Amino acid sequence: MRCLQLLKAAGTVLMTAALVVVPAHTASAQNTSAQDDPGPTVVGGTRAAQGEFPWMVRLSMGCGGSMLTNQLVLTAAHCVGSTGNNSSITATVGVVDLQDTTAIKRTSNYVHRSPTYGTSTGGDWALIRLSSPITGVATLPITTTTAYDSGTFTVAGWGAASEGGSQQRYLLKAQVPFVDDVTCRNASPYYSDLIFAAEICAGKMDTGGVDTCQGDSGGPMFRRDANNAWIQVGIVSHGEGCARPNAPGVYTQVSTFHTAIKAAADSLSGGTGPGPNCGPFSNASNVNIPDAGTAVTSTVTAAGCSGNASSTTKVAVDIKHTYRGDLVIDLIAPDGSSYRLKNSSSSDSADNVIATYTVNASAEVKNGAWKLQVRDVYSTDTGYIDSWSLTV
């Protein structure tokens, strides 16, 4: 894990910033109980001034985060257990000193955990919705381009000041230089499974001494944009130890996931239950329907949503067929549950099915592979699935 180190040179005590990070891809970092192992923290560095980074958040399970909106905290997926209602997390905002009585505190009411975390796609990010908005709170925008994924970054957090050390009372800050993917992957066997498209590395390769450490997990890595405004480019994810030479910190590459983060944020736009409808998700690949044959399916994958599907889930269908009364159409949820959209009718001889069906799928989780299933139950006439879309 990464940590704060004190170096003595010519009789002067030098403080170097480092953050301690527990690898997010290890069993401990992915534990469904985030309070078992808080993960990375910022070690070393210098104390931030009050108001310098007003969007910084300290989370009660021992992680960091940033205010994405006045009600949503962006953090790491490995800091939270799963997507769903959650009132167990307390967010502390607006102070450098965690014991400052002017701190703003809010409890959570919902968590959205990236559905791709733990897969080959990567995605160590999550959103925590607070019980109510914080009026006037500063927010930290996320990058939507790779243009800022290099240079020198700033990191901040209340994590351990030494590898294996305790959490800090005061917010520390430090600067870390970009490390390219190949150099990072080759630094040691620990980094051999680095996901180039999903992770970005930073740290002082030659000397170490500056890094994130345990307790800093979920906190932002940020830099100035073209307008000299702060913009978030990374999320503290994992690393080998704290501030060691040739052991950079690994951060979630926000530019890769900004679309999914925005979609999830939009779906969590307030309230206490699941967010509004998410989508549409579409499939325009033609699927031939056998005449009086077995059922065929076409799949769309819903991702970046939160919570359960709506009671007004929309299924828009475009099927070309010369006798639509032949067709039985069902929506198949990710767990295999079936929802009938259309029955067959020997008296309905019109062409094609071009319609939007409304389904109460509120018992289903939004994210996952949904299927449109179509079967032709009478002989002679034929057709194909032209396209369909789903809004959950």
Automatic annotation (TrEMBL):
Domain Peptidase S1: 42-266
Record key words, sorted: Disulfide bond, Hydrolase, Protease, Serine protease, Signal
InterPro entries in the cross-refs: Galactose-bd-like_sf (IPR008979), P_dom (IPR002884), Peptidase_S1_PA (IPR009003), Peptidase_S1_PA_chymotrypsin (IPR043504), Peptidase_S1A (IPR001314), Trypsin_dom (IPR001254), TRYPSIN_HIS (IPR018114), TRYPSIN_SER (IPR033116)
A Pfam family of this chain: P_proprotein
SMART domains: Tryp_SPc
PROSITE patterns: P_HOMO_B, TRYPSIN_DOM, TRYPSIN_HIS, TRYPSIN_SER
EC category name: hydrolase
Molecular functions (GO terms): hydrolase activity
Cited SUPFAM superfamilies: Galactose-binding domain-like, Trypsin-like serine proteases
Signal peptide per UniProt: 1-29
Enzyme Commission code: 3.4.21.-
Domain of life: Bacteria
Domain P/Homo B: 272-392
PANTHER family assigned to the protein according to its UniProt record, in alphabetical order: ACROSIN-RELATED, HYALIN
Protein name as annotated: Trypsin-like serine protease
The organism of origin for this protein: Kribbella deserti
